[in-house]
Structure formats: C-alpha cells, structure tokens
Design a protein that fits this description.
The protein is α/β, with parallel strands linked by helices. It contains eleven helices and twelve strands. Strand 3 (107-112), helix 4 (117-127) and strand 4 form a beta-alpha-beta unit. The chain binds S-adenosylmethionine and iron/sulfur cluster (SF4).
Length: 340
Amino acid sequence: MGNFVSQTQLHTPNQDDALTDAYARRLTYLRLSITDVCNFRCDYCLPNGYDKKRPTDELSVDEIATLVRGFAELGTKKVRLTGGEPSLRRDLPAIIDTVANTNGIDKVCISTNGYRLGKQVQDWLEAGLSQINTSIDSFDPDVFAQITGHDILPKLLGDIDDVLADGRAVIKINAILKAQHANATLSQALDYVRHRPVSFRFIEFMQTTDNSDLFFREHIRSQTLIDQLLDMGWQALPRRHTDGPAITYTHSDYAGTIGIIAPYAPTFCESCNRVRVNAQGKLHMCLFDSVNFDLREALQTNDTTALKQQLHTLIPAKPEHHFLHDDDSGLMHNLSLVGG
Ligand code: SAM
Ligand code: SF4
C-alpha cells in the first residue's frame, strides 16, 4: 500500500477527534438547556410568562450524563446549564454534580434569573458549580419589576453579595441593552463594579420572532456605551482565543469590569466555540438557525459511540454566522426555548 491514504481516511474523522466545524472553529463549549419553563415574564423574552403545561419529557440526569460524556470525549471543556429557568428543576444539584464529575469538563456554569439564588446556591456550590451568570436588567427596583414581572431586586442584590463573599464561584451579571434605560443602567453599573470584583456585561437586544415590536423600539448598538467608556478612560482588554463573546473593558479605579456582547457586530460569529442542546435533546448549531437535530435516541440508549458519530456527522453543517442583520431569527421565537 505504500503511502496510499484513501479519500475516506482523509475525510472521516476518528471517533474521538475534537469537534471542529467547516470554518476551523473548535467547539469546546456546550450550552445545555435543562428546561424551557420559566417563572419570569421578561418583556423581551416571555412577556406573558410560560403559558404551557410543564413538559414531561425533559432530559433525565442519566441522559444528561451520556450527553456530556459524549461531548467531553470530543473536546468539550465547559458546560453552561441554562433554560428557561434551570433552578426550577428539582434535580439541579444532581445535574451539576453529574456534569462537574464528567472527565474532561473543567467548568460548569449556570445562567439563572436569580429568583432562587439565596435559597439554593449552597447546594449548587457543593455540587461543583464554578460560575453563575445572573441578570440585572435595571438597578431601579421599579424598572426591574416592570421588565421581569418580579419585584425582587433588593433581595437579588443581597444574594449576589453573599455569593461574592463566599468566593467559591465566579459571578457575572448580564443586562440587556435597551435604548430607554441604557445611560441610567451604565452609570449605575459603574457604581456597582467600583468596589465589587464583578464582570457586568451588556448584551445587545436580539430580535426573535416573538419580540419584533419591542426590538424595533428598544434596540440600540453597543457603540454608544463603548464611546462613553472610552471617554471615561476605560480600556478594552486584548482578546484571547479562549475568551467568550464579551469584549471586556477595565479601569484602574474599579474592582470590576464592564463587558459588551455585540451579536450584531460583523465579526461576532468568527470566534464561536459553542453549540446548544435543548431540554428535549435537540442539537442547535446556532441560536438562530432554522433546523435542529434530535440526539435523543443515543441518549436514551446510553450509546456514547452513536452520539459521537452523530455529532461528527452534523457539526460540519454549523452555519458560518447567524442572519440577525437580515431580521432573520430562524426558529427562535424567544430565548427561553434554547437558552441564551
Ligand atoms: N432564565 C435565565 C436567565 O434569565 O438568565 C436563563 C435563560 S435566559 C434566556 C439567558 C440570557 O438571555 C439572559 O441574560 C437574558 O437576559 C438573555 N436574553 C433573553 N432574551 C434576549 C434577547 N432577545 N436579546 C438578548 N438577550 C436576551
Ligand atoms: Fe425567563 Fe430568562 Fe427569559 Fe427572563 S430571560 S423570561 S428569566 S428565560
């Protein structure tokens, strides 16, 4: 045979090769929604609340174990549990423990609205949680209540300070960037991070098929905030290839940082390192794509080999970028369906 290598050998990945898409992006980050149910009514996401019967077919802890093992064997290092509201799953500590104890997973994070933070966080930390992202869309309690449907801002701020004092988990705070609150929230966020070692990130409002009216009223590009930060002496940190989607700004007078997540920026998708799986085991290659792929059979049969083959077959089809700039949100009615 000499040096002959067949076409099949050239193009078929070994079953344990790291997941890499057709644009040479290494996919090392899995965002896993564990429920699409939510108890909040954020005006940009679920303005009428969760109005269906709670599904009975959410992935079980055993299925999650198979899923995460398969991804970890293909190079995934970080898993974010999201939703809907992940803290509504009673077995959340068992899920965190399962993910944290999977060989190859370095980081287990959660995105939560914070409603149950004070009550549950000790269980999450004991189970091995490494990072908590929670939202504070406004520092004005009335505006917070108006946006989310829950008047809990003072309690949430106290619970976040307790997590900071505990020190076991990194905490990041997200705020959706809306035109009418942008300047007030920036100035309050600057006060907030002056003495707290917290990353406070503004996320540009993304259009979904459900929120177009509000989107067109409230969407602004983050450049207006960036200009203000630069004027005040904040500086952007150089980006490393392992960084997430935020551009981080620092200032020597402040303990914390300000992050900007700008999905409408032309280069946003170039460094994408993630795929998503919803609470029923459907793979979404992009938050805004127009197809998803069912992984459930391999999960139900605990067949990691089949799962890995399926991932190697599907991942090359990950789209190069989303089409939000063309007002095309794909299948995404609201982010509670797959997780932000
Ligand atoms: N319920 C949890 C929470 O609120 O953190 C997890 C799920 S939520 C979909 C995750 C993140 O997506 C939150 O920070 C939320 O503000 C953000 N989000 C939801 N809809 C969005 C939109 N249309 N544009 C930008 N961010 C959005
Ligand atoms: Fe629920 Fe999070 Fe959506 Fe708000 S953003 S409605 S908390 S899923």
